Amino acid sequence: MAGNWILAFLFLASIAKAEVFYVTSLRYRGNSKGDITQAVANAWRDACASPWPAKVIIPKWEYYLRGANLKGPCKAPIEIQVQGYLRAPQDRSRLIQQGTWNLMFDFVTNSIIKGITSLDSKYFYINAHECRNVTLQYLTITAPEDSHSTDGIHIGSSFGITINHTTIIGTGDDCVSVIGGSKNIIATNFICGPGHGISIGSLGKYPNEEPVTGVAVKNCTLKYTQNGVRIKRWPGSPTFRPRQSGTHCKQDDPSKVKISEIGFTNIKGSSATPVAVKLLCSRK
Ligand SMILES: *[C@@H]1O[C@H](CO)[C@@H](O)[C@H](O)[C@H]1NC(C)=O
Ligand SMILES: *[C@@H]1O[C@H](CO)[C@@H](O)[C@H](O)[C@H]1NC(C)=O
Ligand SMILES: *[C@@H]1O[C@H](CO)[C@@H](O)[C@H](O)[C@H]1NC(C)=O
């Protein structure tokens, strides 16, 4: 299958007995070879409002999808099953070019997201915001090397996120980035690169930003990455950041972000530059 991306078998919980919402039903009118963005959004909305366990099913055909925002909280568990292939629309209308292909999970709890394969999409990424107890497993995201600056998985304001058995190749930015308000984030058995590596931050960008705590990266392989694991901070105070031209800030302002209890153990590898480990602390 040429270009773009494919998404198959996505489960948000496995349910035996459920009310079933087919995106291809008369109610949602999703067609094979058609754009099912709206059909998926409507089926999700109804499934989420269902007081009984629900299943959203995308049957075994090929479709176009511009993106999906799977927003909770829902009334009962939902399983969403992608049996077919989803592709990003080919046409280069302005709307599509601006939007990164973004699978968004907002306010999702106690869920497993697994078995997503995204092939050669320049824009695909997964965004988890305000999620609790979510496991991302068996994901494969590959992007062409000239990919735009998008992260693989971006986590913010979330608690208890596990990323397991996942491969992210060639996204133009971080494989995983974790920002403010996130707690207990674990990445294990993870393969990343080329790309920027695994990042916490940038921190200290917004006023009253919640801290990031309890991030663990274990038994992961990072190949041809710009960095391995890193913590990024904005210099200066978020409430008063003197600006130079554009959006850049004064690099020599000390950061107000405090970093503590960091451990690196049992790391093996080679570095393309003379410095393998760099601790750049503020002067004040
Ligand atoms: C977390 O989610 C899993 C799977 O979705 C569920 O089995 C488990 O009970 C949840 N844990 C808590 C503490 O709710
Ligand atoms: C990762 O997946 C394996 C199953 O292959 C499981 O045994 C392990 O507990 C998982 N790790 C985490 C942190 O959930
Ligand atoms: C660690 O990762 C390697 C290679 O990715 C894998 O073969 C091995 O089973 C993993 N170990 C554990 C304890 O998960």
From TrEMBL:
One Pfam family, short name please? Glyco_hydro_28
Q: Which residues form the active site?
A: 196
| Protein localization | Secreted, Cell wall
Q: What UniProt keywords apply to this chain's record, in alphabetical order?
A: Cell wall, Cell wall biogenesis/degradation, Glycosidase, Hydrolase, Secreted, Signal
Q: This protein's superkingdom?
A: Eukaryota
The answer to whether the entry has keyword Glycoprotein is no
GO biological-process terms attached to the record: carbohydrate metabolic process; cell wall organization
GO molecular function, a single term = polygalacturonase activity
Major location category of this protein: secreted
- Signal peptide range equals 1-18
Q: Which PANTHER family match?
A: PTHR31375
Query: What family is reported?
Result: Belongs to the glycosyl hydrolase 28 family.
Protein name stated in the entry: Pectate lyase superfamily protein domain-containing protein
Organism, by scientific name, is: Malus baccata (Siberian crab apple)
